[in-house]
């Protein structure tokens, strides 16, 4: 028998306070303030334990619930699948696994294989392991290094953090896995702080930021570098949309030095930027694409590491070799709820034309944020792609000195008090946790966006005067 009645909110809050170790939170304040419990969701909105309604401008806090809350058709698809067969290790196949993989690959020309796992970190670890095994089997241990970019994030495990470009997030978790090497970020707004970027704008900066990667490759030795791992649009590092010319040059560099290109689509994948995948805005041809959050919009835990056939072939060239295959498993990669939910999620995006809505509403929201910038000097830059947007807050537009993180958090808290959940970069980059983040569900309407932007407008007015 349950000891807590599901609608006894006082008991729920006390049980939470006594036993839950929340993600991301310092817990001291929860000794005097109630933890927030989200009880219900519908469309773009969620309700907390007090029955207060919030509009959610960050799709479940961490850009995940792309198709919105309360999707009965996904729940029904998962239910039907679970009562048929819930799990079998992925050494065997499943009906929804095959169906989803086929449908996913139809959106990803040039790629052909789907490896199922259950978190973004894990999907990235799969790609890292594949790169290491390719190095061992095909390059005599050379080409084992993996490049990652300053300000990018690829997950929470120690090796994913080894590829993490956010100093504050990594602090106190070392020592890290060897063989991961940092390359510079490509945030044009902060080009003046980079040696190679000073005075450059637009395509000149984009090409220079990519050339900075080449410099690292030459310094390390091209025969030591196996892969380059990048977010298509950097998420928690400040919503960084790559400048013109960047991706084209990155692709050339990878081809020149035979470096595999791994694109981390954990945030951008499955519609967030208005194309199925973020890299598809830029005509890039990746060797690995990893994805998680929006794959099933949080209705089930599923992540995928998708590869080209060329990568896959490198694991089956010698049948006689007992170590010739990818000897890896993810137990919950065999949960059928994941692909069943992902398939239903993809159908919703297609049936409701959500990619098109994302492009249209994304443009509208960026225009609205730029209009806010005209009214609030504290917004140094508004930027974004599709429904994935950021507003970088600065003390002074001329020097671009970032505002303190506590001021950014005050804006987030003010919005929350108004019933609008927004996000912000936090405890990630020393001195640069100064970007408000927005990633509403792909179903957002103009009215939803107006409500979100109006809350930010009031909050900025109150916090910065
Ligand atoms: C770009 C990126 N990659 C990977 C991850 C890790 O995903 P997960 O938390 O599912 O392990 C995240 C999480 O925020 C992310 O933003």
Automatic annotation (TrEMBL):
Keywords carried by this UniProt record: Aminotransferase, Pyridoxal phosphate, Pyruvate, Transferase
Matches recorded under SUPFAM superfamilies: PLP-dependent transferases
InterPro entries: Aminotrans_3 (IPR005814), Aminotrans_3_PPA_site (IPR049704), PyrdxlP-dep_Trfase (IPR015424), PyrdxlP-dep_Trfase_major (IPR015421), PyrdxlP-dep_Trfase_small (IPR015422)
Signal sequence, renumbered to the chain: none
Source organism, top-level taxon: Bacteria
Cofactor: pyridoxal 5'-phosphate
Gene3D superfamilies xrefs: Aspartate Aminotransferase, domain 1 (3.90.1150.10), Type I PLP-dependent aspartate aminotransferase-like (Major domain) (3.40.640.10)
Chain ranges passing through the membrane: none
Pfam families per record: Aminotran_3 (PF00202)
GO molecular function, one term: pyridoxal phosphate binding
This protein's record includes keyword Transferase: yes
Family: Belongs to the class-III pyridoxal-phosphate-dependent aminotransferase family.
Name of the protein in question: Taurine-pyruvate aminotransferase
Taxonomic placement: Bacteria, Pseudomonadati, Pseudomonadota, Alphaproteobacteria, Rhodobacterales
């Amino acid at each position: 028998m349950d000891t807590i009645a599901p609608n006894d909110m006082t008991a729920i809050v006390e049980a939470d306070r006594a036993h839950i170790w929340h993600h991301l939170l310092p817990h001291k304040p929860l000794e005097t303030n109630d933890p927030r419990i989200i009880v219900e969701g519908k469309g773009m909105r969620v309700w907390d334990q007090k029955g207060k309604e919030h509009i959610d401008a960050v799709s479940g806090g961490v850009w995940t619930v792309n198709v919105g809350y309360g999707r009965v058709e996904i729940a029904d698809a998962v239910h039907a699948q679970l009562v048929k067969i819930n799990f079998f290790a992925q050494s065997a196949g499943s009906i929804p696994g095959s169906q989803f993989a086929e449908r996913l690959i139809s959106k990803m020309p040039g790629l052909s294989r789907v490896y199922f796992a259950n978190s973004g970190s894990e999907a990235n670890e799969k790609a890292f392991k594949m790169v290491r095994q390719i190095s061992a089997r095909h390059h005599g241990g050379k080409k084992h290094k993996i490049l990652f970019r300053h300000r990018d994030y690829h997950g929470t495990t120690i090796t994913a953090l080894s590829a993490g470009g956010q100093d504050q997030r990594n602090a106190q978790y070392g020592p890290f896995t060897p063989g991961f090497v940092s390359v510079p970020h490509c945030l044009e707004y902060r080009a003046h702080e980079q040696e190679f970027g000073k005075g450059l704008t637009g395509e000149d900066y984009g090409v220079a930021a990519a050339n900075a990667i080449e410099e690292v490759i030459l310094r390390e030795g091209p025969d030591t570098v196996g892969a380059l791992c990048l977010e298509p649009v950097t998420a928690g590092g400040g919503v960084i949309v790559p400048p013109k010319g960047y991706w084209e040059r990155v692709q050339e560099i990878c081809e020149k030095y035979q470096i595999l290109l791994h694109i981390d689509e954990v945030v951008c994948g499955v519609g967030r930027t208005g194309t199925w995948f973020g890299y598809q805005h830029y005509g890039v041809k990746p060797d690995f694409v990893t994805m998680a959050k929006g794959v099933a919009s949080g209705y089930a835990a599923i992540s995928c590491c998708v590869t080209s056939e060329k990568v896959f072939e490198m694991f089956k060239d010698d049948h006689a070799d007992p170590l010739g295959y990818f000897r890896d498993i993810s137990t919950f990669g065999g949960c059928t709820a994941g692909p069943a939910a992902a398939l239903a999620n993809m159908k919703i995006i297609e049936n409701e034309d959500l990619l098109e809505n994302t492009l249209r509403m994304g443009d509208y929201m960026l225009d609205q944020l730029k209009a806010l910038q005209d009214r609030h000097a504290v917004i140094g830059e508004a930027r974004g792609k599709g429904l994935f947007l950021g507003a970088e807050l600065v003390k002074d537009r001329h020097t671009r000195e970032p505002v303190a993180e506590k001021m950014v958090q005050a804006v987030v808290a003010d919005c929350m008090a108004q019933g609008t959940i927004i996000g912000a970069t936090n405890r990630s980059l020393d001195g640069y946790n100064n970007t408000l983040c927005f990633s509403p569900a792909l179903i957002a309407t103009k009215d939803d966006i107006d409500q979100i932007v109006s809350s930010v407008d009031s909050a900025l007015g109150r916090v910065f005067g």
